[in-house]
Amino acid sequence: MNLSKNALAGLTTSFALVPECIAFALVAHLNPLTGLYGAFFICTITAIFGGRPGMISGAAGSMAVVIVALVAQHGLQYFLATVVLSGIIMLLFGVLRLGKLVTMVPHPVMLGFVNGLAIVIAWSQLQHFKADGAWLHGSLLLWMCGLVALTMLIVYLLPRLTRALPPALVAIVGVGVLSATLGLPVRTLGDMAHIAGGLPVFALPELPMTMDTLRVVFPYALLMAVVGLLETLLTFNLTDEMTETRGLPNRECVALGVANVASGLFGGMGGCAMIGQTMINLSSGGRTRVSGAVSGIMILLFILFLSPLIERIPLAALVGVMFVVAQQTFAWSSLQVLGKVPRHDALLIVAVTAITVATDLAVAVLCGIVIAALSFAWRHAREIRADVTQAEGVKTYTPYGTLFFASIAHFNELFDPQADPQQVTLDCRHLRLADHSAVVAVASLSERYAKAGKTLQVLHLSRRCEALLQRSGVMATA
């Protein structure tokens, strides 16, 4: 294990965590220290105890957006209770070993998720080109653009010269020193908020423990948990692919739950995996728990001791790094395959990307899964067919494919009870009955033949389907 390389990667990532967590806290109408405390607890605990070394978690914007209305209507204490409850839900999700559900997310949805978040990361940086709600102009805009370009140039070119230091760290420190030495008129991290503070203090949320409180808190907590788990597990999959290793998703869910509970009890925001900071960590060489732990601990050190230095970092340097992250996160290969993959997969990639940008991750992924499921059902519903033979007055249907709720109509079209002979056989050796709707369809088919005064004999059913059909009044012969 390269300890120094992982420690430097963690330090680099911590610089990128600070402005994001401050911005997300401000979005949620919270004190910036609430976001930084949350980043410390969530990043450190998931790094040490989680199931995916190298992945970075923190106070995430996707979860901050969820609780804006709660904070505005009910205040900080209800928010902290929501964070704790969402952590308990995440913890239970991991304990029940439901992390494997992420394997149900189709690859086109993953591509759309990655592309959408890359666009969101880049788009969110544009807020730093504003001051007091107005766009920068004149020399301030020129210096901002110039330093952003210089930062990106360093990040791109330094790896060609040396890989001894993370390029993002060199870029942030180098541009910071240059800005301070020349006294350039640029906005700094301190212009966003002052981050000096003390140690986080343990305190239970001060609110009545009643059903009325639960009715207020639970819907937000559930939504926060769903959003956090989705973003974490999808980033988990992406990290697995990039590092060519396999993590433990259920362990990650448990650690994330514990981290959110701790954050809420110590006055911090809720959080989950952050794809941008994870990309910075991985590209800087962070592969072990050390990088994540260092990143989290540095956040606390910034609050306690290093705020005067950290507040002097130019926002342009951090914006430049995040622009590079957005460019590297976007799956450019997906643009090349759009014309090569099936049309429904191409549309799915574009749809999930657009929904991620327009709404949020949870909605995009859920919509993507629903669209993929409907597309799958539609395609497989049309694939069912049957061979038909007739000998000695007995007509035999031998269907092929999967019989399920979407294919029943097409299945029924294969048969003609009025024109068929008195004896009809349904040979199910090549037919798979996938759900209860399929069983009902076979039972209904038998009833159609009975009403026509004819007999339908069903052969070669599985024992399970045979028992279900017999309960439905259909006699089956193995």
Largest pleated sheet: 6 strands, mixed
**Structural class based on helices, strands and sheet pairing:** alpha/beta
Regions with little confidence, pLDDT below 50 for 5+ residues: none
The end-to-end span amounts to: 60 Å
Shape: elongated
- Nearest-integer average pLDDT: 88
Q: Tally the helices: what do you get?
A: 20
Number of strands: 10
| Percent in helix | 55-70%
Radius of gyration from CA coordinates: 29 Å
Content of β-strand: 5-15%
Order of helices and strands: HHEHHHHEEHHHHHEHHHHHHEEHEEHEHE
Concise description?
With 478 residues, the protein is an alpha/beta fold. Helices cover 64% and strands 8% of the residues.
Give an account of the 3D structure.
The structure is a single chain. 64% of the residues lie in helices and 8% in strands. By secondary structure, the protein is α/β, with parallel strands linked by helices. The strands form three sheets. Strands 5, 6, 7, 8, 9 and 10 form a six-stranded mixed beta sheet that branches. A two-stranded antiparallel ribbon has the order 1-4. Helix 7 (138-161) runs antiparallel to helix 8, helix 7 (138-161) crosses helix 14 and helix 16 packs antiparallel against helix 17 (361-381). The chain starts with a helix and ends with a strand. It is a multi-pass membrane protein.
